[in-house]
Amino acid sequence: MKKEVGVLLAGGVGLLAVLSLIGLKKILTKKDKKYSDTYSDYHRHFDEKNHDDETHGVEFYALK
């Protein structure tokens, strides 16, 4: 019986760990989404990953 209790306890701890990680990810995603909703702007491109020096400012959008 002790082996079964150990297996159930390990499964419970693993489930708790997975659920806490999922909850933490949801909280962090919600915080980022709130920031993006507050500061959403078409001309905001300082957070682009492929930032080139040639394509900055309103002049770039005027050429499109």
Instruction: Output the structural class.
Output: mainly alpha
Average predicted confidence as pLDDT: 75
What is the terminal separation in angstroms? 72 Å
Tell me the β content. Answer: under 5%
Secondary structure tally, helices: 2
Shape: rod-shaped
> Helical percent range?
55-70%
Radius of gyration: 23 Å
Helices and strands, in order, run as: HH
Counted up, domains total: 1
Structural overview:
The protein is mainly alpha-helical. It has one domain (2-63). Helix content is 67%, strand content 0%. It contains 2 helices and no strands. The chain has helices at residues 2-38, 58-63. The chain is rod-shaped and about 75 Å long. The termini are far apart. Keywords: Membrane, Transmembrane, Transmembrane helix. The chain crosses the membrane at residues 6-24.
State the main characteristics.
64 residues; mainly alpha; 2 helices
